[in-house]
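hey so u asked for the seq, here:
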Amino acid sequence: MDNRQSVGTSLISERPAARRSRRVLRRVLVVALAGGAAAGAALALLPGEPQPRRAARPPAAGPQAGPRAQARDQAQALTAVTYGVPAALPGLTALIGRQEQRVREQPEDARAWAVLGAAYTERGRRAGDAADYPKAERALRASLQVRGTPGTEALDGLTALALARRDFPAAKRYGEQALKAAPKRWSAYPPLIDAYTGLGDYAKARAALDKLLALRTGAEARPAVRARAAAVYRDRGWREDAVAQLTEAAAAARTPAERAAWLAGVGQLAWERGDLPEALRHFEGALRLDPDQRAAAAGRARTLAAQGRTAEALAAYQAAVARQPRPEDLLELGELYESLGQRQPAEESYARLREAVARSVAGGVDEELLTGRFEADHGDPWEAVDRLEEEWRRQPGTEVADALGWALHRTGADQEALAYATAATDKTKGGGVRSAAYAFHLGMIEAAVDRTGPARRHLEEALRINPYFSPLLAPAAREALRELGGVPDEPPPSE
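ran it, structure tokens below
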């Protein structure tokens, strides 16, 4: 019997079959572009192309950045996009302008097209603006077309673009081609590690990291290598090793934007273990270096909320989502409002979330994971299951397993949910990451199937990992433990 109820408005109304048809159409269009005069088609779109609304640049030091500073920023951006490390937004914009001019003058320059595509991708990722991704794809396809054979620069760019769009199968395909073409390049390994992780192939991710660490990389590459090692260590549950690697990466970073990215990562690791003062210190340090460091801005807001500094947290979130908001930040803001009993602002934030997701999807980003999470808790959980089951078939990573398990639980399919929630936290299946949210989901599902002992253990673990992990779910964990008879009636420890 179908016992579905109307519990909310879907984030994206399009059903799975329609989404598949759209993806098929997009592939046909891509093939058509690659098969014709790709460089000419891409070039024709550069002059006079309507520019999307951009995030405002941070103020320059002094009245106006001089030519020398602009040249330095541009050179740093070129190095960054070549090796796949964080770059500052002003430098990326300057680099894009230079590369657009170059491909107009020399449309047969394959490397210029590849650099332009990589710069578009990085700017879109940094600014949270998926409108840059179709331009990146056109430039990268043009590079492949004018070269005649796949070049490593274009393959690297296509790998980075696929990762930005959360298309892990494509990232794996392009990344493996790039690695095969030049197996000794250290920069070919980090994106492949991300692709394998997104596909749930943790054995290959670790093997790729081992090969990366065995290479003799120069001093300029070591911070990025350490940062990539930190991500793998974090996924394996080696928290202290991850912190050590990222801290060393930040200390050895060569540009403010790069250092800010690694400091934001250290702040995120501190947040995940509930160390609020340490998290706030690193998030604010990252923002001082790079005001465009969006992960740090959201992390700061999240940490302020956990410290009970609600007015400051709301102001910080509003500043973070004022320009080109990331959907995940709008979801966090909506849930904070909801936890405060402010239903109208919460609904407004969720409405903005729907708009942000639509823009992101229009740029080719796979937002099924975030959509599934939203629908499970704030919309239609059956819609969430439909989307996440399809996502699991395509790229079965730990994040998808956790989200799918929770969505199934929200529909009442608790036995099926238990299998996915267990997989997300099973170290033998890659689920080694110490996540308070994952432990909470597993504990609640176990409670629903009367596994009282394991449920109590996992709910206690969630609050032990991070007592502040969610303004909505952390209180729910404490309430569930009280019902199970496993937690005293006292608030979580303060900072």
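The chain has four domains: 25-45+73-200, 217-315, 325-363, 381-495. The chain is about 70% helix and 0% strand.
lmk if thats what u needed
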